[in-house]
């Protein structure tokens, strides 16, 4: 039987940091209000496109795996903030990393997107269709934010993470997974002013609004991710006590704590970095995965559980068996173009535009 072993991992975080104090100069809020409700202290604002973030993360994952883009058969990009819809953004990433001839596809399952894409790539490896894939989660969520609305302005950030999968007979990689969608109440989390349902000739399309019912999403996220984890553990016939690391979607610290309590997972087994990056949607899981390896939370042969919940309402959980290697074969080489602009300077036009429209 074939498996999709994770042989490379990489991330890309833009350098401009938007602190809670900086946000308080835009909307009526403060650091205590934000951290007590979300666990977020700061987030990143990108000066480059989603494609550029994805390219850097993918290249760093390739470096880690010790292979080149020309070895890749499939590029899957999980994103809900594509640089372009037609052509898909994955095709530009494919071009940038030199994965000539590889299949390239965008996957949009919002915050669950990376785990959806990981399932897809692993299934293709197991079916013998491909041998090597790069799976990326990349988002420029600050592009959607209405900077006149406090509820969403404090939550989101930009970034990217990626993994390389390689076919192997070793029982590693994605071992069990459960994905799904509860579309009955999909409207409790959605983005306005975007998509072909809009009559773009009737009125100017203004700032997007990220609209959500926080309390309802909290309940559904905790239940959806916890139930999916239980399903995956049953699939794998794996006791919860054997899980070494929990990597949840980084949407809200309270949600992470509630899931950990429901699953009875100790704090020292949970990867949390929402304080540094906020919610980067499909990028949260791969970024957290990379940092879990970097800080030693993931050890050789670790059993990893990951879960996510997103707009749609999509949900996913995955059991990943890590391999022996926790050190990169080559150091990361990808760097973003230099920028001296602060986060507020990068957002200046967007902030003014949102203020004028509200």
Protein model, in words:
The chain is an alpha/beta fold. It contains twelve helices and 13 strands. The protein has two domains: 3-171, Peroxisomal Thiolase, Chain A, domain 1 (3-Layer(aba) Sandwich), CATH 3.40.47.10; 175-321, Peroxisomal Thiolase, Chain A, domain 1 (3-Layer(aba) Sandwich), CATH 3.40.47.10. Helices cover 33% and strands 23% of the residues. A five-stranded mixed β-sheet has the order 1-7-6-4-5, with helices on both faces. The protein has a four-stranded mixed β-sheet with strand order 8-13-12-11, with helices on both faces. Strand 12 (303-310) and strand 13 (314-321) form a beta hairpin. Helix 3 (50-65) crosses helix 4 and helix 7 (214-236) packs parallel to helix 8. Residues 233-322 form the Beta-ketoacyl-[acyl-carrier-protein] synthase III C-terminal domain. Residues 250-254 are annotated as: ACP-binding. The active site is at residues 111, 249, 279.
Distance between the termini: 57 Å
How many strand elements?
13
User: Roughly how many Å is the radius of gyration?
Assistant: 19 Å
CATH hierarchy: architecture of the largest domain: 3-Layer(aba) Sandwich
In CATH, what is the class of the largest domain? Alpha Beta
- The CATH fourth-level homologous superfamily of the largest domain: Thiolase/Chalcone synthase
Q: Could you list the spans in which at least 5 consecutive residues all have pLDDT below 50? A: none
Q: Would you tell me the overall average pLDDT?
A: 94
How many discrete structural domains?
Answer: 2
- Which structural class best describes the helix and strand composition? alpha/beta
- According to CATH, the fold-level topology of the largest domain is Peroxisomal Thiolase, Chain A, domain 1
Strand percent estimate: 15-25%
Could you give the order of strands across the largest sheet?
1-7-6-4-5
Tell me the helix content.
25-40%
N-to-C SSE string, H for helix and E for strand = EEHHEHEHEHEHEEEEHEHHHEEHH
Largest sheet: 5 strands, mixed
Tally of alpha and pi helices: 12
Mass-distribution shape: globular
């Amino acid at each position: 039987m074939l498996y999709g072993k994770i042989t490379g991992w990489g991330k890309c975080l833009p350098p401009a940091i938007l602190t809670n104090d900086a946000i308080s100069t835009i909307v009526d809020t403060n650091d205590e209000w934000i951290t007590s409700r979300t666990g977020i202290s700061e987030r990143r604002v990108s000066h480059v496109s989603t494609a550029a973030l994805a390219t850097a993360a993918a290249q760093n994952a390739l470096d880690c795996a010790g292979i080149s883009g020309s070895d890749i058969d499939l590029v899957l990009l999980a994103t809900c903030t594509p640089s372009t819809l037609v052509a898909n953004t994955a095709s530009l990433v494919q071009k940038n990393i030199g994965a000539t001839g590889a299949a390239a596809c965008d996957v949009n399952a919002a915050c669950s997107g990376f785990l959806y894409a990981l399932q897809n790539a692993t299934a293709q490896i197991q079916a013998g269709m491909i041998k090597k894939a790069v799976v990326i989660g990349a988002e420029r969520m600050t592009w959607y934010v209405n900077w006149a609305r406090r509820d969403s302005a404090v939550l989101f950030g930009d970034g990217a993470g990626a993994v390389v999968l390689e076919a192997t007979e070793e029982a590693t990689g994605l071992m069990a997974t459960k994905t799904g969608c509860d579309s009955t109440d999909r409207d409790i989390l959605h983005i306005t002013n975007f998509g072909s349902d809009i009559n773009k000739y009737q009125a100017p399309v203004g700032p997007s609004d990220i609209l959500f019912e926080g309390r309802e999403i909290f309940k559904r996220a905790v239940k959806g991710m916890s139930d999916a984890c239980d399903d995956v553990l049953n699939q794998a016939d794996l006791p919860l006590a054997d899980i070494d690391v929990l990597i949840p979607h980084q949407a809200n610290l309270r949600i992470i704590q509630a899931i950990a309590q429901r699953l009875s997972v100790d704090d020292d087994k949970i990867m949390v970095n929402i304080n540094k990056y906020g919610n980067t949607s499909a990028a949260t899981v791969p970024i957290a995965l990379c940092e879990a390896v970097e800080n030693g939370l993931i050890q050789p042969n670790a059993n990893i559980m990951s879960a996510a919940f997103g707009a749609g309402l999509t949900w996913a959980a995955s059991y990943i068996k890590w391999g022996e290697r926790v050190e990169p074969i080559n150091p990361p080489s990808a760097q973003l173009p230099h920028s001296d602009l602060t986060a507020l300077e990068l957002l200046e036009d967007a902030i003014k535009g949102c203020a004028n429209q509200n």
